[in-house]
């Protein structure tokens, strides 16, 4: 099929033909928040053959941000440090409340669309801390802002170790990944080859996702574990080397703390410059937090949702106690969260 786009009914028919040839349940996973949205908006799950299960994985940056990081930033806000971060993160409940609630209590908390906005705010609030989160797609922007002198509390993450962790766990058998197109534009296709599983790096239209599913099924039928690139219009073998360089200059690799996984070696990015690293600069405040409390949260099961071991509809609070207006966890807050998408599009 290569890059030729087929009409949706034709693609679905081809998917169905290959799925029939495989004769067992096939478990695929999409690991990008934008794919989660495309799949949900277009009702793709309900169109797939009965033996093809499509799970949602840890692709939503807000959802995978660890409770301890949220609690740390809320503590800084409450201690009088001005905080700026991306909108969805404001409403994620921490153990000590959300950033939005801290703002309601008088803390200086700003919702921004870009690091440039945070840099502008820094002119009025020199103590401002930017709560940086996301994968290789958003990290380069934070890295550039660091070069310009922005102080950052980093929850940025390297994505591939999480995919590797999913493959190592015995909780879920994954036959293939729809791999994240946005991240691949930065890191290229090569690093994905490290994962020994069928993968298709895909774009974000419904057709892209269906082509990816078809190509994955063909690989699985033929016993292959390769990396195919469906998103050739933007993803190149070596990725964006300028973005990679600016990340490497401003961040050092460490163990990343993920909601749903805990610490994953070599999956975190910490600010190199100690003067701009909020975790070092404000260590006196952060060291007083009882982080053991951070793990106790309200019965929300986002951790299992993120690992693909629970379907949002299996959470007893889904759509009842927990809604986008009254979210118990990040998966219901974020536009890219599995729970929110399942509810919004009645998956
Ligand atoms: Fe958490 Fe709400 Fe999702 Fe349940 S429905 S896992 S409480 S976000």
Description:
- There is one protein chain.
- The protein is built from 18 helices and 11 strands.
- With 347 residues, the protein is an alpha/beta fold.
- It has 2 domains: 3-36 and 49-57 and 159-229, Rossmann fold; 62-158 and 239-295, 3-Layer(aba) Sandwich (Rossmann fold), CATH 3.40.50.
- The strands form 3 sheets. The protein has a 5-stranded parallel beta sheet with strand order 2-1-7-8-9. A 4-stranded parallel beta sheet has the order 4-3-5-6, with helices on both faces.
- Helix 1 packs parallel to helix 12 (206-221) and helix 9 (139-147) crosses helix 13.
- The chain is globular and about 60 Å long.
- The relative contact order is 0.17.
- The mean pLDDT is 95.
- The structure holds iron/sulfur cluster.
- Residues 300-302, 305, 312, 315, 317-318, 322, 327-329, 331-332, 339 line the site of iron/sulfur cluster.
Order of helices and strands: HEHHEHHEHHEHEHEHEHEHEHEEHHHHH
Do you know the CATH architecture of the largest domain? 3-Layer(aba) Sandwich
Q: Strand order within the widest sheet?
A: 2-1-7-8-9
Count of DSSP strands: 11
- Chain-averaged pLDDT: 95
Provide the CATH top-level class of the largest domain.
Alpha Beta
CATH superfamily of the largest domain: HypD, alpha/beta domain 2
As a percent range, the share of strand residues is: 15-25%
Q: How many structural domains?
A: 2
What does the largest sheet look like?
A: 5 strands, parallel
| Rg calculated over all Cα atoms | 20 Å
Q: Output the structural class.
A: alpha/beta
Bound molecules: iron/sulfur cluster
Low-pLDDT runs: none
Helix content: 40-55%
Shape: globular
CATH topology of the largest domain: Rossmann fold
Distance between the termini: 29 Å
Number of H/I helices: 18
